[in-house]
Amino acid sequence: MQSNAMLSETNLNPLLQGLDPVAANRVIAAEQALAMNRPDQAVGQLGPALASHPDHPEVLRLHASLLSLRGEHRSALGDMRRALDQRPHEALYHNAFALFLAEAGELDQAIEFLRRACELQPTFVLAWYNLGLFLTRSARFDEARDALRRAVRLAPDYTAARAQLADLLRMDNSRDEAIAEYRKLLAEQPWTGMAWWGLAEIKTLRLDEEDSDAIRRALMHPRATDGDRIAMGFALAKALDDQGRYAESMQALATANDIARKHRTWNAAGFTATIESINAAARTADAGQGLGSEVIFIVGMPRSGSTLIEQILASHSKVEGTAELTDLPLIIGEESARRKKPYPKWLPEMSADDWRQLGQRYLERTARWRKRHPIFTDKLPNNWMHIGMIRAMLPGAKIVISRRDALETCFSCYRQYFPGNDYTRTFPDLAAYWRNFDTAVSYWAQKEPAHVYQSVYEDLLKNPENQIRELLTFCGLPFEEACLRFNETQRAIGTPSAMQVRQPLRADTARAPRYGELLNPLRQALGLPVAS
What's the average model confidence in pLDDT over 502-524? Predict the structure, then answer.
């Protein structure tokens, strides 16, 4: 029956024209396997079709998907370009090419191909959604809002587009409009976890008992997936925290993190070994002169105040505040693919010229952020792992390390819905991650004080003007009063602290004291005295 159904699809699908029935069925099966996140199964199905029809556009499209999953972005683009050349008016192919461009870090080009996909097929909902997503990542929020609204008009039940639209409104400081969008979606689909989490991300919004009761009911909804339940669990914890029900909040967090760990776990020992290898190799790199004075890297643990530092710097007339840029990790991936060695094994092989070329590649990729201001920020927290590499490839760059109390930082990470940050699921894993971070950044701050600066969140709260002046001096920037009034700076912010940094500094942000003995397991993991 399955074979007949597939054969029928080959007759109806014009994209499969030119394939014999056996190859067409394999292509269909490969696409289904990819949709179910089974790449190994897809490889088994696509292999024979690739051998018999190596130039067929659909075979090339699916092969490009497999290459992209393996991180071979340039090869994926090559295959997809060959497919697109054969079918230049196929909107699906423009959409696919845009996705591969985005994976390769070419976001501006991806946006142009998505625009072409939408022109070719104005009812192509996925293309409008992807366009809105990539415009959001590029901080082009007005255009992104228009694209997402188009997707929602075309498909009112498209949950991802509606949630992304609400997220965008939240990032763009349209607080009340964002709340209305989330509430509207939840009234229709109460099990939508990302909508509940979106509300929870509006830190200035208090979730009451009616909300926590609604979340508990939604957790039991038959249409809720594990992904929904994880997001709702974190939203429930925030609601209970707002209501002062701290023991219940901790239980909600434990449940949500347990569900997440069923899908992905963290290898703390493996991560430590990787960080030690990176540090050992990077310490031998020779930093050159000058290149990179246009960039200020802001690194650190998540939830440590990095968005606040970025907002302060972005308030300066010479600085463009950007976002959590992925350019450095993408350059690492490109170099690993070129050398056919995993990072960091190729670090010891790098010459001064190699480092200079990587630095120039980074500056080429980020040129668009210097169109309005001469200096820009790169606030991807995990770049703390690559401080040695940054020093070697961009010796003129400034690196600001965002630091906050270990207990507060780790607990805040534990409370945050962080897809992909699997070290946040247990206290021992969080403590291990923190120790790796602390060891690495302390080394570089001591070794390179002219280029690496530690900004301590608690010190900033105690004496903001002195700390802001010191930060600006380190960055080589003249003092400007606007940096003291950072909360008045109008810009879109795409991190969990978006609403908080638009308010004046508050001295009551510490959360650990409210939880008392409930946090003793985390204190023990961090080697701190327990509360009694």
Answer: 84
Token duo for residue 158? 């498209």
Rounded to two decimals, the pTM is: 0.83
Which positions ≥6 away from 85 have C-beta within 8 Å? none
With 0-12 / 13-18 / 19 or more C-beta atoms within 10 angstroms meaning exposed / middle / buried, residue 402 is: buried
Residue (of 250, 198, 260) closest to 225 by Cα position? 260
Q: Is the dihedral of CA 270, 271, 272, 275 positive or negative?
A: positive
- Please provide the average confidence, as pLDDT, over all residues in the chain: 90
- Residue 214 near residue 182 (C-beta atoms within 8 A): no
**DSSP state string for 236-298:** HHHHHHHTT-HHHHHHHHHHHHHHHHHH----HHHHHHHHHHHHHHHTTPPP-SSTTTTEEEE
3-state SS string over 342-394? CCCCCHHHCCHHHHHHHHHHHHHHCHHHHCCCCEEEECCHHHHHHHHHHHHHC
Q: What percent of the chain has pLDDT over 70?
A: 93
Query: Looking at the chain, how many residues does it have?
Result: 532
User: Which tokens hold the place of 197?
Assistant: 């989490």
Task: Please give the pLDDT value at position 9.
Answer: 47
pLDDT at 284: 61
- Residue pair 20/11 in contact (Cβ under 8 Å)? The answer is no
H-helix or E-strand containing 183? helix 175-188
CA angle 273, 275, 281 (to 5 degrees): 100
pLDDT of residue 86: 96
* pLDDT over 50 at 56, yes or no: yes
Tokens representing residue 144 in the block = 């992104």
Question: How would residue 174 be classed by pLDDT, with cut points 50, 70 and 90?
Answer: confident
Helices (H) and strands (E) in the chain, counts: 26, 5
The H or E element that residue 216 is part of is: helix 209-219
pLDDT at 2: 44
Q: How far is CA 330 from CA 72, 336, 365, in A?
A: 11, 10, 10
CB neighbour list of residue 202: distance below 8 Å, 6 or more residues apart: 170, 175, 178, 179, 499
> Rounded to 5, what percent of the chain is helix, strand, coil?
65, 5, 30
Q: What residues have CB less than 8 Å from 180, skipping those under 6 apart?
A: none
pLDDT-derived band of residue 492, with 50, 70 and 90 as boundaries?
A: low
User: Which sign does the torsion angle of CA 500, 506, 507, 511 carry?
Assistant: negative
Other C-beta atoms closer than 10 Å to the C-beta of 346 total 17
**pLDDT, tens only, 201-213:** 998 899 999 999 9
Pick from 381, 397, 402: nearest CA to 308: 402
Say what the pLDDT of residue 147 is: 97
